[in-house]
Amino acid sequence: MSKKIQIIIGTIATASLVTSCVSRGENTGWEYAPDMYYSKGYEPYNQADSNSVSPYGMSMREPVAGTVAYGKADYKYALPNSGEGYEASATQIAAPADLTDADGRGKYLYEIYCTPCHGYQGNNDGEVFKKVATLKPAWKGYTDEYIKTLPEGKIYHTLVYGKNNMGSHASVLKPVDRWRVIKYVKQLSAAAAAPAAAATTQDSTKKN
Fold first, then answer.
1. What fold is seen in the domain 73-207?
2. 189 vs 11: which has the higher pLDDT
3. What global pTM score does this model have?
4. CA 5: distance to chain centroid?
């Protein structure tokens, strides 16, 4: 009886070993209807098969030099990511003349992408600055003279490339939306400056 059990156990062990060996290495097992899993057409981000037409077997090819993708003409930004480019943006970059923000999209986008650091009123009291003690804002808030007088072109340049602690927002904000956010920032700055100016006027009046 014990010999039969030994034979059965030995057979099962051998079968398990053979099965495990077959499933290793390059053998990925059987697939049902693989033509439904893998497109026969060349798709940009699908590298299931090597493309014999494109160089290096790529599915996605580089665009022709000097061309601009459809609908992306306003994404072109000529100024370099340098100190010189930043200074030049003050005079060379300006908002579109027909810019509108009737639906409050600037405020909407500001509250998504800017409030985590700058806060809802631009006081640099967002959750990021609260929780990360090593991050120090470069200016006090939107009441700061720096923001009040900062050219809009420089803010746009910063949204494109990033500056100091702030990273680039070019991938999440369309060019026209960047200007809407900038206009809203200037509104916050003006609103924040108004009470301070009123307080200064009252003080001078009392002294006189």
1. Cytochrome Bc1 Complex; Chain D, domain 2 (1.10.760)
2. 189
3. 0.66
4. 64
